[in-house]
Amino acid sequence: MSRIAQYIEAAERDNTRRSYAAAIRHFEVEWKGLLPTTADATSRYLADHAATLAISTLRQRLAALSRWHVDHGFTDPTKAPLVRQVLKGIRSIHSVAEKRARSLEIDVVQQIDQWLEVAIGNAERCDDRPARLRHTRNRSLLLLGFWRGFRSDELVNLRVENVEVSPGEGLSCYLSRSKGDRQMLGRVYKCPALSRLCPVTAFNAWVSLAGLTQGPVFRKIDRWGRIGQEGLHANSLIPLLRSLLAEAGVAASEAYSSHSMRRGFAGWARASGWDIKELMEYVGWKDVKSAMRYLDASGSTLQARFEEGLATRDPADRSPPPSMHAPTEQTKEQARGPRLPEPATLSAILRVTVSLARFSPQSRGLARGRRLIEQTCFERYAMQRLNTEGTQYELTVPHESRDSLEEEIASLLDDMYRIAEDNQCLLEATFHEPATDSYWD
Questions:
Q1: How many of the other CB atoms lie within 10 Å of CB of 342?
Q2: Quick check: pTM over 0.90?
Q3: Residue range 245-259, pLDDT digits in tens
């Protein structure tokens, strides 16, 4: 393999490469599709699997098809208006609530930790080294995964030589790459030492017992207590965690996954008074919407808020009602009902990259298509051209929520692709919000 090929391979995550290969295999082998394909065939592929695959899965399949066509120098059919309209219709007809892993609450973490401490003590007394190793490793994995809010890929990519422990203070660990680090810049994650459920103590106990000085932190242990050289696979963490929960006597262990630790920590932090900004910074979320997917509004909190709004003075303390024949301004206001707050309007500053090209040398609609996109799609958002070529724009898009912003961007993209097609042009467009580092295309 050449050095260029090595760098190209290193630029993409292994999981992404494997999932894209599986998606292409599904399209060609299972669905019997032909590559390169067309917008019509891509739409039929989506329609055939709309009822059985989740929207997120369909989007991943489209991303894989798009990547294949771009890499091989073909026109990308997934950007066609027909495909976007079919996907939008599927989202409307087959909309279902997103399945989320059950949150691992702090009292459950404590229950598992107590069980592990007893199991480690029993293994020591019985001189059962394999069991002692497994329980010590699992305790470190659980506590570090919870208190750092790590994903499964982040846990399995931890290396001993990249973890620095400061006794009594905490530990810091460097990860060269993770799912959230799209630019692959690497990041140092810090975790404090705690008075109980301490991830630092658990980490030291595991590394010391296993005699690890370098390589992956969390590894496979066979039945004879031999420790593997390779790290655990990310997919193995879900069955490992569920088995641990079941052994510790936690009910409905199958409802938990590796995301449960991340969600559990996010819920604990919010309940402990962390604001969303510091939580995002600690965990590593770049997008508020991504963070909110991990936060649940507890039923008790909602009930308390409603009851607070329904609270009234004691009837004995109420002043007598004014005469019905001479209504006051106050009674008129009460008759009209409570004033509802105006919905808060936010503004997103978006950078838009636009690339237009002719279908063929005979196409004559390039200039008209660019002009219509500016007039129809951009001008109402305080459009600013960022270059003379007309490929970079800045828009200010008002919105009431992240969902409404995404709907607005999706509608803009649909209009832009329609205009481009009407004028016999190929369009590539990307929306970027620098404040959250979010992308749409």
A1: 6
A2: no
A3: 999 998 888 888 888
